[in-house]
Amino acid sequence: MAATISCVPGRLAVPCMRLLRVLPEYRRLAPEAKPRARASDMIMGRSELLRGCAALLLVLLSSCAPSVVSSPSSAAAQRRPPHHLVGRGRRYDAIFSLGDSYADTGNGPVAFGWYNITTNPVMRPPYGSTFFGRPTGRNCDGRLAIDFIAESLGLPLVPPFLLAPRTGTGTTRSSSSFRRGANFAVGGATALDASFFHRWDPPGGSTFPLNTSLGVQMRWFQSLKPSLCDTTKDCKELFGRSLFFVGAFGVNDYLLALAANKSVHEVRSFVPAVVTTISTAVERLITEHGAATVVVPGVMPMGCAPPVLVVFADPDPAAYEPRTGCLKAINGLVAHHNALLQDALRGLRARHPAAAVVYADFFGTVMDMVTSPAKFGFAEDALTLCCGGPGRFHYNRRVFCGDPGATKCRDPSARLFWDGVHLTEAAYRYIAADWLSAINSPPGASADNRMMAGATDAAVESSC
């Protein structure tokens, strides 16, 4: 099967690559509350969000300003930075990842045709400046959680599938680049297929012009599989020794609906469909492909993301969580998603006890950073972005990180948020440490898998 990007009809507006993302997990929220912001408020540059671009929730937003960082001694219980996420042995031979911009290591710019410095801010400095010294297509100043996890397991950074050269026939990707894993994640990807969102298309445009959904990514994986293993036995052995990531998915599904001026109550109605799509993909990896360890991240607290706080600003003080200033309704939507997702994963463990199906808590660690930033060495104004344009939280709808006029904070390691909804390398390092802990102790895994999990205990011991 050819590994092609599935495009759907509609106007693909290049300037519209900068959407956002929305959602997270705060149990005591008012899920029925409707964000007051209208879709017309979400204008990115000259392009209207609903006129052709509401899909690319990838790049985005914000600037920097002089930041005041708490002294380590001022934190009552400061968490030690996990600078050395290094395992003593290799448990996995490869990593295969499906997801959105939180895991995208370079597919997004290729998928959307922006893999050059003139059209894509993510391909301009200061992206990648903290670690790589150059932009790589990651929506970050450096490494993502998946990068840290690969390093900790002694594996190479997971290569983006769409950047690999094609075979001589030009129909499939060369397997030589993917013997240690492949990354299919694309910034802006949804769990549901793009066709689901066309009901909200504006006249003469398309709400979702490009389809890089979970289903499309699964087909990319299927197209690569024959070049990696020949027989069912070989594939089972290879993928049984591999670590799979599915997600985080769901953020973009919900944001597209909210951008179409749907209420949180309306969006909640299709959360079960999103979760079912995710759990079905996980089950297929186990039953059809022999995956033995699948990690499924939940959604982070997007009600705390600076662009979301600006776009969906609510004049009612009761709409905000008093301690953090995060939007209750949007965090409540994500709480619902994460709860249903965990229930679905418990069902998978019951049906497939030999597999390790791991829920990776994205929400908890990020909310801890928002609530107690000094504990992580972050500035007290945790919701202020590091890179972007002038404005509240240093977020500007027309000046994004990498754009002319954007500025970067002096010390990204003192910031939680990088360019809008995306995080800094410093934040991803902590998240990776927590996910490694979950991978090391997977619930419901068989005895053999539990013994294998012990091989990476050293990674967490040396990182926390």
From TrEMBL:
InterPro entries: GDSL, SGNH_hydro_sf, SGNH_plant_lipase-like. The lineage of its organism: Eukaryota, Viridiplantae, Streptophyta, Embryophyta, Tracheophyta. Belongs to the 'GDSL' lipolytic enzyme family. The keyword Electron transport does not apply. It holds the Pfam family Lipase_GDSL. GO terms for molecular function: hydrolase activity, acting on ester bonds. The keyword Transferase does not apply. This is GDSL esterase/lipase. Transmembrane segments: none annotated. Keywords: Glycoprotein, Hydrolase, Signal.
